[in-house]
Write a structure and sequence with these properties.
48% of the residues lie in helices and 14% in strands. The protein is α/β, with parallel strands linked by helices. The strands form six sheets. Strands 1, 4, 7, 8, 11, 12, 13, 14, 18 and 19 form a ten-stranded mixed beta sheet that branches. Strands 22-21-20-23-24-25 form a six-stranded parallel beta sheet, with helices on both faces. The radius of gyration is 28 Å and the shape is globular. The structure holds ligand 26Q. The site of ligand 26Q has 22 residues, from helix 8.
Length: 859
């Protein structure tokens, strides 16, 4: 279809290019480039440069190396007409970029050496020294190191948790597998809030991630697109005499793309993350200015620019916040217009759109794309309905991430009508044709029709986004085997019965580049030495570790790596919150968003039980444990915030109790995020994955822990099931009701009082919390939580308590035999290969996208 845009540089230039200040990768070339960028990007010389100036110089040095690969990738894709994966996601939780980019470019060591060679003495850098000293870091005789610069890297927190981080891992794997891809999303000006803890409670602070500028992105204002909202629709006759519909919005907003290069690991492929930022559309303020309504114009400008201001900080659908629907439509419309522009510019025919693009919907947040593509094809490009719908279905696939029926996204009809009147008409038309098919298949089954309709009419009327995503695409997948099965028997059962061939499972995965190599260099080095460096791109190779589990010398090295990592976390904890923890104690970790279904409070109850046991019997031989928590609560989620308060309150009492004497330490790490998670995964001994069975779609933190050699205590939920299968049931601490048993308990009637009656220890634990023991005598603070558990217990915390506590006793026994524990730890890493996002992306490529890798050569 198209030819290569630029010819490769002439051969004579090649050598010069290799040594180019913008592309050279030797330590010397990097150091030269770093200095060059300090001068010519930042306009600074070392003696007056701030830490941020040095960071920006380093970032630009790396960016220049990325741009070379980025351009080659683009040219190769254009020249070969390859199908491109478009990952549509309202969230991309990318984490800090500098270290990851150095790793993927294969220049981490060279950068470290280049900076060492630059020999920038902190004593000669007063502005830098001041910052470091304020942070309590030593400066003494040191030189500026890569570690200093990595610490300066801001995290773009453009996501809530699992779903957003999954999108980021997938971007890494797509590029690493050389699959051409674009991530389409929103450039929120404020990402997920920063969490601080005051008096034990969560306090939210706005996240100003752009305050020092973002060296990784390139704005492309000339590629801005217009997006309409509101207004009305009208019919008209086109030139051929056909009746057509046109949407006349009453507000038009402009979307400006910001591109971030996403390099693959040690390949030349460099894909694009294209995030859209909203701004006022000039023609519209002109109009208002001209009629003299200055303030109306200003209001409109502010409203337009507010659209992408802030990420909604809840990881569940809670109800019809109109601005959220605006955000979703905004980015999806920008993305599709961008794709169509590219397709047409390359001489493509819209009837073949799906041969050049495949779009994955990351949950229902971008599901409005189905209606928008229909509108673009039919209203704006003049296609007939049937071919347009065929193109649309072939273009989209939908990933579901939740089983909770109440968390399924549905939008009140009045909001939809007001904001997207044309899309509502299109949804009605899709629905009526779809329900016609259902009627033919199930004549007379009106209940089924009502259940499957895209419109919920059981009370107030809503648009059901999951149904739109199912009907408008060619594939539907869950994110773990259990989850995919439960989708078919539960919330999507009718859709499965109608078209079983649409349903797939793609178990989630995480990138081992960030979550092993980058954050756990000690382990990565040991793996390289033991089984060779190939594991990082072929994680099944980790199986070879199993044969080393019986080698005492190897176990000793394994333990040493873990111990050094634990010392690092202990130091981090001391610096951040002033608590001293013993690296020799068992590090028992639960980090994830705070949710009742994830049951951080089950963990807390066990800590209190342990505390009571030690108080009662100070001689008791319980191995010392450090309980580490981290995670944010949605700002409006009272119970989640109360769980944080419970944990911090238990910590206050237990950590200081002389009778406990350090045998229990409880730590709540404030502001858990991708950046500081690097301290956590490598140093965990025990990973808490204790959700009520049937509630956690997959989990991905569970995978990160397993890769880093933590053992799991967990329920048969989400991907835990597969982790247990892969590492071996004997190497996994299993407890709790199964998903089927949970269902049965509810069917047969659950009384938390029965659990209380059958377990005196549990009664004492709840009694102690209710008594005000952890709240300075105030019996009111935890009353809502204790009452909730003892009266309804919607997540079966009490029902699973006894099994959990007994399982924790087995953990203690295993820990007491440190050789045994090390063996289990090794076998966990050995069995973690399946959970690489490379495997997940290969699955998507084969089962859903029908795309292949494309080699990119550097000219
Ligand atoms: C929707 C509408 C309005 C406002 C917010 C939302 C919203 C935002 C984020 C709804 C859900 C989310 C995030 C969900 C999420 O992170 N789910 C997790 O996805 C992971 C990746 O598949 C799984 O491993 C987890 O099990 C699942 O909980």
């Amino acid at each position: 279809m198209a030819t290569r845009i630029s010819a490769p540089p002439p051969a004579a230039d090649k050598e010069r290019l290799a040594e180019d200040i913008r592309t050279g990768i030797s330590p010397e070339a990097l150091a030269r480039s770093f200095h060059d960028n300090l001068y010519y990007e930042q306009g600074r010389y070392p003696a007056i440069a701030t830490l941020n100036d040095f960071y920006q110089a380093a970032a630009h040095t790396v960016r220049q190396r990325l741009l070379q690969r980025w351009i080659e990738t683009l040219e190769t894709v254009v020249a070969t007409d390859q199908k491109v994966v478009c990952y549509f996601s309202a969230e991309f939780l990318m984490g800090p970029q500098l270290g990851n980019n150095l790793l993927n470019l294969g220049i981490f060591r060279q950068a470290t050496q280049g900076l060492e060679a630059a020999n920038l003495k902190l004593k000669d850098l007063p502005a830098v020294r001041r910052v470091l000293e304020k942070r309590g870091e030593s400066t003494g005789d040191l030189t500026l190191s890569l570690e200093h610069l990595l610490e300066e890297d801001e995290e773009p927190g453009l996501g809530n948790g699992g779903l957003g981080r999954l999108a980021a891992c997938f971007m890494d794997s797509l590029a690493s597998l050389e699959v051409p891809a674009v991530g389409y999303g929103i450039r929120y000006e404020f990402g997920i809030f920063d969490q601080t803890i005051r008096d034990g409670w969560q306090v939210e602070i706005t996240d100003e991630w752009l305050k020092n500028g973002n060296p990784w992105e390139i704005a492309r204002p000339e590629m801005a697109v217009s997006v309409g909202f509101g207004g009305r629709t009208e019919t008209y006759e086109d030139q051929g005499g056909c009746l057509r519909v046109r949407w006349v919005p009453d507000l038009v907003v402009e979307g400006v793309p910001y591109d971030t290069p996403i390099p693959g690991y040690r390949v030349n492929t460099c894909n694009t993350l294209r995030l859209w930022s909203s701004r006022a559309h000039h023609s519209f303020d002109f109009q208002a200015f001209n009629v003299g309504d200055y303030y109306a114009a200003v209001d409109e400008k502010v409203a337009s620019e507010n659209l992408t201001k802030v990420l909604y900080p809840n990881d569940e659908f809670l109800g019809g916040k109109e601005l959220r629907l605006k955000q979703q439509y905004f980015f999806v419309s920008c993305a599709l217009k961008d794709m169509i522009r590219i397709h047409l510019a390359m001489g493509g025919d819209l009837n073949q759109f799906y041969e050049y693009f495949t779009a994955q919907l990351n949950d229902t947040h971008p599901a409005i794309a189905v209606a928008e593509l229909m509108r673009l094809l039919v209203d704006e490009h003049g296609l007939e309905w049937e071919p347009a719908f065929d193109i649309t279905r072939r273009s989209f696939a939908y990933t579901n991430h939740t089983l909770l029926p109440e968390a399924l996204e549905k939008w009140p009809l009045p909001i939809f009508q007001r904001l997207l009147p044309r899309h509502l008409e299109i949804i009605y038309e899709i629905n009526s044709r779809f329900l016609e098919r259902v009627r033919l298949r199930y004549p007379g089954d009106e209940a089924r029709i009502a259940r499957m309709s895209l419109i919920d009419e059981s009370g107030e009327r809503y648009v059901r986004m999951a149904h739109l995503a199912c009907v408008g695409g060619h594939a539907i997948n869950g994110v773990a085997e259990l989850h995919s099965e439960l989708l078919k028997s539960g919330i999507l059962r009718d859709f499965y019965e109608l078209e079983p061939e649409l349903f797939h499972n793609v178990t989630n995965g995480v990138t081992p580049r960030r979550f092993v190599a980058l954050i756990n260099p000690g382990l990565a080095g040991l793996l390289d030495e033991t089984i060779g460096a190939g594991w990082l791109t072929d994680m099944e190779k980790l199986r070879e570790l199993a044969s080393h589990a019986d080698d005492a010398a190897f176990r000793e090295r394994w333990r040493r790596v873990k111990m050094e990592n634990k010392e690092g976390l202990a130091d981090y904890i001391r610096r951040k919150i002033g608590i001293r923890v013993d690296p020799l104690s068992l590090f028992d970790v639960q980090v994830k968003r705070i949710h009742e279904y994830k049951r951080q409070h089950l963990n807390a109850l066990h800590i209190v039980a342990r505390y009571l046991r030690l108080k009662r019997n100070p001689e008791l031989n319980l191995p010392p444990r450090t309980f580490i928590f981290g995670g944010k609560a949605a700002p409006g989620y009272f119970m989640a915030k109360l769980i944080i308060k419970l944990i911090t309150s238990i910590a206050e009492v237990v950590n200081k109790d002389p009778d406990i004497d350090g045998r229990i330490k409880v730590v709540f790490l404030p502001d858990y995020n991708v950046k500081n998670s690097r301290w956590v995964y490598p140093s965990a001994d025990l990973s808490e994955q204790i959700s009520t069975a049937g509630k956690e779609a997959s989990g991905t933190g569970n995978m990160k822990f397993t890769m880093n050699g933590a053992l799991t205590i967990g329920t048969l939920d989400g991907a835990n099931v597969e982790i247990r299968d892969e590492v071996g049931p004997e190497n996994f601490f299993l407890f709790g009701l199964t998903a089927d048993e949970v269902e049965r308990v509810w069917r047969e009637g659950y009384r938390p009082a029965d659990s209380l009656a059958s377990n005196p220890e549990l009664g004492e634990v709840l009694g102690l919390i209710a008594s005000g023991h952890f709240s300075g005598g105030d019996r009111n603070v935890f009353a809502p939580l204790v009452d909730n558990l003892s009266q309804c217990d919607p997540f079966l915390v009490l029902a699973d308590f006894a099994g959990y506590a007994a399982c924790q006793d087995q953990v203690d026994a295993a820990w007491n035999d440190s050789d045994h524990w090390s063996r289990l730890s090794i076998l966990n890493t050995a069995g973690s290969g399946k959970f690489s996002s490379d495997r997940a992306i290969r699955d998507y490529c084969e089962k859903i996208w029908d795309v292949e890798p494309l080699k990119v050569d550097l000219m």
